[in-house]
Amino acid sequence: METYELPELFQLAASYDRSFEPFAYPKTEQQQGKADLTAESWAAALGEIPADFAKSVVVEHYRRNSVSVSTSVIHREWVEYRNQQIQKAESAEIRSKPRPSASESLRGWERATAALLEAKGQDPEKAIRDIKARRQVLQVKCPVCRALPGRGCVSSTGNRVQPLSNNRSHPSRFEAAGVEMPPPNSSERDDDEHDSEDSVPNRG
């Protein structure tokens, strides 16, 4: 605020608080000198704060408080207001940024997965091909266990129905999806005898 704007602010405060009357309506030279000095000190303390904002703080302050308003009260409200404006601007900027397409997200996932697998000493290209193939297979219904699209295949052992080991799919499901079945790794070969297509739940 500028010094010349302070008398009007003091007049507004004086309409709520009589202690501001000597600054708003000085009657003597001594009161005028003190009012000018107070206006200069308030202007320095409020700095860049707009006059209209300071007035709105004065009104709101006396709506909720009976103690005199001060520069610290106005300054605190200004800082809070500015922080809110910055947060809103940042949120708007985030919302305005285009979201990555499905293909872009997939490429990002591939890079992250490849880096992780390579660090583990595995062939990232082969592993990613296998993962993509298994995902494509999940888009069709399994002709063996009747698992719906998006759901994993299951097997039946006695009265128990449980997912196939390692979240694999039945070979017939790969065939139905038109996808070549990846060769099983060592751990999958160990489980093959438990997950044959003969061990499927009876769904009628």
From TrEMBL:
InterPro entries: Phage_Znf_bind_put
Domain of life according to the entry: Bacteria
Biased composition (Polar residues): 154-169
Sequence ranges assigned to domain DNA-binding phage zinc finger in this UniProt record: 134-183
UniProt feature, compositional bias: Acidic residues: 189-198
Region (Disordered): 153-204
Protein name, as recorded: DNA-binding phage zinc finger domain-containing protein
Organism encoding this protein: Actinopolyspora xinjiangensis
